[in-house]
Design a protein that fits this description.
mainly alpha, 25 helices, 55% helix
C-alpha cells in the first residue's frame, strides 16, 4: 500500500501544478519527456473553447469528465479524451477538437509503440498470454491512440487531421520470431492512412507540391513496409486510392523491393490476418485439393493479398511479375528458414507438398516464374512460447473449485437464478471470499497472474447479489484488487481491462446501464485513478 499512497500524493502534486489548456486540466510533461516542438507550443496557446453542455448533461458535468481524463495514466488519459470527444463532437465541436489534439499529444509518451495480436494457435483463455492479448485489444498503444485521434478529427477538421497524421512515423514492424506469441497489429494506422489520403485528394491543389502530396504520402508508407503483417491493410488502402496507372506502377515497384527485404519470420508470415486459419501449410489444402486460390479460400498469409495486387496490376495493364517474383523469393527463403512448432503442416501434409502447392499457385500468376525450391532436409523447428497457464498452484486450484461451485452444486447441477437467491448460495460466495483472504501476490509467478486470477474468481458474482453486506464485501474485494495492483503503473491498459469487466459484470442485463452502486464504488475510492474512471464511466455510459 506504500506505493498506492505515494501515487495519491503524486496525483495531488500533479493536479496542483497542472496548467489549464483548452477546456481541461493537463498535467505538465514528466521531466524525462522530450521538449515540445514549436508547433505543439503554438497549438497549446490557442484560445480555450467555451464551456459546453450536452442534451441532459450540464456543462459542469462535461467539465468534470474532461478534468477526470487528465488525472489518469497517459494511455488511459488519451483513450478517455478520445471517447469524450466522440460523445461531445456534435454539440461541442470545438471542445472535441481540443480533446483530440491533446489526446494525440498525450500519446507521444505512451508505450508500447504498437498494439499486438495473438499469433500462436490454440491456447487457454485463462493464461498470461490470453490476458496480455486483452490488454493490447484496448488500443491504448501509441500508434493506435494517435490513429484514433486522427480518425476522430477527420470529420471535424480535415486540415488538422492531415497535420496530425503526418506527425505519425510510418510503422516498421520488426521480425518477432517463434519465441513471441504475438505479432504487431498496425491495421488501425492504415485505416487512418486511408482517411487521410481521401482528405488530401479532396483538397483543391494550389501548386504541384500539393497535388503530389497524396502520392508522396503513400510512397513513404510503402517504403516503410517491413513485415507481412502490414500487407493486408496496406493493400486495402492502395485498392481504394484511385491511383493512375503511373502512380500504381511506382508503388508496386516500391512494394516489390520491400518484400524482397522482408526478414524471415515464420511467426509473422503465418499469423492470422482475419478470422481464417493461416499458416505455411494452409494453402496445401486449397490448391492440392483442387480449390482456386481466391481470397475467400486461401489460407496462407499474403496469398489473398497477392491475388488482389496482381488483379489490380492487370487491370491497370502493369506487369505483376516483379511483385510475384519478390513474393516467390520471400517464400523460398521462409520455407528454408526456421519454422515455429505450431505452424508446421498437420497430418499427412509435408513441406514438400506445401512447396508443390505454392508453385502451382505462383504459376497461375506469373507463368514461367522460377519455382520455389523443395528443402533438401527438414528445416529447423523452434518451439512456441509457454502460454503461462493459470490455476496451476495448489492454492489457485482450491480457489478455482470454490468458484466453480458458485455455478454448480456439489453434484455438478447448474444453479438456477432462484438457487442464487438462497442463503446457501450466498454462503458459498462468503466461503470463496474467505479463502481469498490469505492469498498473496507472492504466491503466483508474477503480479499479473495474481491480478487476473483474482478478478476471474468473482467475475459473475456481483450481478446475482442483492444490496447488503455481502454485496459490499464483493465490491470491496474487487476495488482493493484494482487499487493494490502494480499493473496500474506497469501496464495501465491491461489493468484497465479488469476495471471494465467489473463495470460489465456488475449488470444483470448487459444492455442495462451500469448500476449506480458500482460506479459509486469507483468514485468513492481513495485511489485517484479509480475515482477518475468512476466519473468517466458515469459520463460515458
Amino acid at each position: 500500500m506504500v506505493r498506492s499512497y505515494a501515487a495519491e500524493f503524486l496525483a495531488l502534486v500533479v493536479l496542483a501544478g497542472a496548467t489549464r489548456i483548452g477546456a481541461q486540466v493537463v498535467a505538465p510533461p514528466a521531466p524525462s519527456s522530450p521538449v515540445p516542438t514549436q508547433n505543439k507550443i503554438q497549438k497549446n496557446t490557442t484560445a480555450a473553447p467555451k464551456p459546453c453542455a450536452l442534451p441532459g448533461i450540464s456543462a459542469q458535468r462535461v467539465q468534470e469528465a474532461v478534468d477526470a481524463s487528465s488525472m489518469l495514466q497517459p494511455p488511459l488519459a488519451a483513450d478517455a479524451m478520445i471517447r469524450i470527444a466522440a460523445k461531445v463532437a456534435a454539440p461541442c465541436p470545438a471542445l472535441a477538437k481540443d480533446l483530440l489534439q491533446h489526446a494525440f499529444d498525450q500519446a507521444d509518451s505512451v508505450e508500447p509503440e504498437t498494439a499486438y495480436k495473438l499469433a500462436v494457435p490454440g491456447g487457454s483463455t485463462d493464461s498470461r498470454v490470453s490476458y496480455s492479448e486483452h490488454g493490447y485489444s484496448q488500443q491504448m498503444d501509441r500508434l493506435s491512440l494517435q490513429s484514433r485521434a486522427v480518425l476522430g478529427m477527420a470529420p471535424l477538421d480535415a486540415k488538422t487531421a492531415i497535420q496530425l497524421f503526418q506527425r505519425i512515423p510510418p510503422p516498421r514492424p520488426p521480425a518477432v520470431g517463434c519465441s513471441s506469441a504475438f505479432v504487431p497489429d498496425v491495421s488501425i494506422y492504415y485505416e487512418a492512412l486511408g482517411k487521410e489520403f481521401a482528405l488530401l485528394r479532396a483538397r483543391k491543389p494550389r501548386n504541384d507540391a500539393v497535388a503530389q502530396a497524396p502520392l508522396a504520402q503513400l510512397q513513404d508508407v510503402v517504403g516503410a513496409t517491413t513485415s507481412p503483417v502490414q500487407m493486408k491493410p496496406l493493400t486495402a488502402v492502395i485498392e481504394g486510392a484511385e491511383l493512375t496507372d503511373t502512380e500504381l506502377s511506382l508503388l508496386m515497384n516500391a512494394l516489390a523491393a520491400g518484400i524482397e527485404s522482408f526478414p524471415v519470420d515464420d511467426r509473422s508470415l503465418s499469423a492470422k490476418a482475419d478470422e481464417g486459419d493461416l499458416g505455411m501449410a494452409g494453402i496445401v489444402a486449397d490448391v492440392s485439393h483442387g480449390h482456386s486460390p481466391m481470397p475467400s479460400e486461401s489460407s496462407l498469409l499474403l496469398v489473398d493479398v497477392m491475388y488482389d495486387l496482381v488483379a489490380l496490376s492487370k487491370r491497370s495493364k502493369i506487369s505483376p511479375y516483379p511483385l510475384v517474383h519478390a513474393y516467390r523469393d520471400y517464400l523460398d527463403r521462409s520455407l528454408h528458414g526456421p519454422h515455429c512448432q505450431g505452424n508446421l503442416p498437420k497430418g499427412s501434409e509435408s513441406l514438400t507438398s506445401t512447396c508443390k502447392a505454392l508453385n502451382a499457385w505462383l504459376a497461375k500468376f506469373a507463368p514461367g516464374i522460377e519455382p520455389v525450391s523443395i528443402p533438401d532436409s527438414d528445416p529447423p523447428v523452434e518451439p512456441d512460447p509457454d502460454q503461462g497457464q493459470y490455476w496451476l498452484s495448489p492454492k489457485t486450484k482450491e480457489l478455482l473449485m470454490d468458484a466453480k461451485h458458485l455455478n454448480f452444486d456439489d453434484n455438478w447441477r447448474r444453479f438456477t437464478d432462484a438457487d442464487r437467491k438462497t442463503p446457501e448460495w450466498q454462503d458459498r460466495v462468503g466461503h470463496l471470499l474467505n479463502d481469498m483472504d490469505d492469498w498473496r501476490p507472492t504466491d503466483e509467478p508474477d503480479p499479473a497472474a495474481y491480478y487476473h486470477q483474482r478478478c476471474i474468481l468473482i467475475y459473475r458474482v456481483l450481478a446475482d447479489l442483492p444490496p447488503g453486506a455481502l454485496y459490499d464485501r464483493v465490491v470491496s474485494a474487487w476495488i482493493a484488487t484494482f487499487a493494490d495492483s502494480s499493473l496500474q503503473w506497469d501496464n495501465p491498459a491491461e489493468w484497465y481491462f479488469e476495471v471494465s469487466k467489473f463495470l460489465e459484470f456488475s449488470k444483470k442485463d448487459r444492455k442495462a446501464p451500469t448500476p449506480a452502486a458500482a460506479i459509486a464504488s469507483l468514485k468513492n475510492s481513495s485511489n485517484s485513478y479509480l475515482h477518475a474512471l468512476g466519473v468517466l464511466a458515469e459520463f460515458l455510459q
